[in-house]
Design goal:
Distance between the termini: 29 Å
Strand content: 25-35%
Structural class: alpha+beta
Radius of gyration: 10 Å
Helix content: 10-25%
Largest sheet: 3 strands, antiparallel
């Protein structure tokens, strides 16, 4: 299974991995990550 990009729907934290974190390390919310494209991740990280 390959790594994917994930975005927290609460604070827009971006994570790169096989699975998203259960708890967002930035806002501490549980199960709030959705899969995003590499292009979207790059835009969020450049903002």
């Amino acid at each position: 299974m390959g790594k994917k990009y994930w975005r927290c729907t609460v604070c827009n934290d971006v994570h790169f991995g096989v699975e998203p974190p259960k708890v967002c390390p930035t806002c501490k919310q549980v199960n709030v990550y959705v899969e995003i494209t590499m292009e979207e991740a790059v835009k969020l990280l450049q903002a």
